[in-house]
Amino acid sequence: MTRTDGTEDAASRPARLAVGVVGAGRVGTALAACLRLAGHRPVAASGVSDASRRRAEALLPGVPLVEPAEVLARADLVLLTVPDDALPGLVEGLAATGAVRPGQLVVHTSGRYGTDVLEPVVRAGGLPLALHPVMTFTGSPVDVERLAGCSFGVTAPEELRLAGEALVVEMGGEPEWIAEADRPLYHAALAHGANHLVTLVAQSLEMLRGAGVGAPDRMLGPLLGAALDNALRSGDAALTGPVARGDAGTVRTHVEQLRRHAPQTLASYLAMARTTADRALAGGTLKAESAEALLDVLADGSPR
Predict the structure, then answer these.
(1) Does residue 2 fall inside a structural domain?
(2) Which 3 state secondary structure label does DSSP give 114?
(3) Angle at 201 between CA 198 and CA 206, to 5 degrees
(4) Same domain for 86 and 220?
(5) Are 31 and 132 in contact (CB under 8 A)?
(6) Which of 183, 128, 124 is nearest to 161 (CA)?
């Protein structure tokens, strides 16, 4: 049975969907390629840069690049895969020009937003979904492989929840329901973990090179892999090292060396060391009698 607003039909339809991508970036081309493997049909994409065209040719061969409005005209399922700041304006523009059809599934992949940002789509009769893949993308075919088992943050109206989760499963992912109000915190958590991890690793690589290590990536790989695994399994209980032990003398030496040889890294070292000390103290790893001297070093070590 099909409701007059098309919701039940879209949420339960077994037929393969014609898929369009607005913004043929790293995310959009990878998701469309996954949907093709699941039996859906990518029919159109939009993208103006040379990089977008190369990605489309590599991951979506034979799919024409057209204007965004034409993508919507050809597709049953539209992926809006543009930067967060561009998404509200894009949605408003597509809805204002009448590009959205009643019953059309419109999916964005922003971690920051839920479905409220798609309200113009809803007013035009479209069906809103927010499906955010929790993965970094390279723009190469390896992205399709990485989506296998990848978590997706799913936000949707209750009547479309099953449809959103089904699409994620078809792409090989694992759906995780995120309430509309929780999307900003969810996204902040992911950015803090993934983006800042890259910065920390890059800084460590630079310092090891400065210390004469010829293959710092090979040195760090096993250590960081074990640390990540331990942290995911045990949380704060996985803390080790001089801060967690309260070894103020070692930390003072670190600070002195960073000020001399890597001043650009000192501020982040101090910030993370203070936070680590606070968590270790709260968790009982760092003893109170050791914490005072350590925190004095960290306070004295602030960049001058």
Answers:
(1) no
(2) coil
(3) 125
(4) no
(5) no
(6) 128
Task: Count CB atoms within 10 A of the CB of residue 46.
Answer: 23
Helix H or strand E encompassing 220: helix 216-234
Describe the strand order of the beta sheet including 41-46 as a list of residue ranges: 41-46, 18-22, 77-80, 105-108, 127-133, 151-155, 174-177
Show which of 178, 211, 245 is a domain's final residue: 178
Residues 200 and 273 placed together within one structural domain of the fold: yes
Tell me: do 148 and 193 sit in the same domain.
Answer: no
Backbone angles phi, psi at 257, to 5 degrees: -70, -40
Give per-residue pLDDT as tens, 274-295. 999 999 999 998 999 889 999 9
Residue that terminates a domain, selected from 124, 159, 178: 178
- Residues 23, 175 contacting (CB under 8 angstroms): no
- The count of domains in the chain is 2
Q: How many CB atoms lie within 10 A of CB 21?
A: 33
pLDDT per position as a tens digit, 1-57: 334 444 444 444 446 899 999 998 899 999 999 999 999 999 999 988 888 888 888
Asked if residues 150 and 134 have their Cβ atoms less than 8 Å apart, the reply is: yes
Q: Are 282 and 228 in the same domain?
A: yes
Alpha-carbon distance of 19 to 105, in angstroms, equals 10
Task: Please list the alpha-helical segments (H only) found in 17-160.
Answer: 26-37, 50-59, 68-74, 87-96, 119-123, 142-146
Q: What is the dihedral of CA 21, 25, 27, 28, to 10 degrees?
A: 10
Q: 162 and 237 in one domain?
A: no
The rounded distance, in Å, linking the Cα atoms of 92 and 68 is 13
Domain of residue 140 covers 7-178
What SS3 state is found at 49? coil
